[in-house]
Write a structure and sequence with these properties.
Layout lengths: L12 E8 L3 E8 L3 E6 L10 H7 L3 E6 L8 E2 L10 H14 L5 E6 L1 H12 L4 E7 L10 H20 L4 H17 L6 H5 L5 E6 L6 H10 L3 E6 L6 H4 L1 H13 L11
Parallel strand pairs: 3-4, 3-6, 6-7, 7-8, 8-9
Antiparallel strand pairs: 1-2, 2-4, 2-5
Helix pairs in contact: 2-3, 4-5
Length: 268
Amino acid sequence: MSNRKNDWNHKNIWNHGYVTTPQAHLYYEISGHGTPILFLHGNSQSHHIFHSYARKLQGSYQVILMDSRGHGFSHLKDSWANRLFTIHDMALDVAALLDKLHISKIILFGFSDGANIALEFSSLYPERTLAVISASGNALPHGLRLPVRLAARFTGQIFRTIKKLVPGGPLRQSLTNWQQLNSLLTDSPSLSADRLHQITAPVLLIAGTRDLIKTSHTNWMASQIPNCQLYLVEGGTHQVIFLRESECWKVILNFLKNIPPASHTQRK
């Protein structure tokens, strides 16, 4: 899939850099002004995937693009480079970024693992969440279709076996990095019904009926989130928000129109 770099106006970026946490260095870019909206990409991706959506919103919102830990320009500190991490850890990274930027309340727009991070954050910090757009996310590992889950587990076993044969060096580190990303599929997220009940912000769930996420699981998520709007795209795949962007954009825009502008989003 294209990274959509050509759709992004870099001239409008007025702030970018890194926020440092005890575990990672996290890259971000900011453009536009208004109510802040943070984009969270999927597994093995970077902030570039959202350039088209960000371009459309930067005239009305303060758009924040972020690379999750272990992705894009973000990287783990040496002491954490060989450790696995979870969606919960990545949600805490979002909180650290918002603290750095002195933002008290945020709209979250996540795709795939990014959607999981957005839902995790909104469950942990309901008072800091204005709204959530969750595209092709899941609340629990078993929300993935069985072939996807089995493939991820098998891949993880291969990584562990090969690592035993590799004493060190770049190959072993690459295997560790792949293992870290693969574990996000097999071991995360962990959003039970009780956790989903804690999300108080309006939520838009978007998924395709041919998604990697089971439609029954998406329906269950929608039934557990108190203030949830569900949009299922008939025949849509896991990349539905990009492959059928015009259709999804209309739904997203209508959802955002019903989210009142935040009067106070900056922390002092």
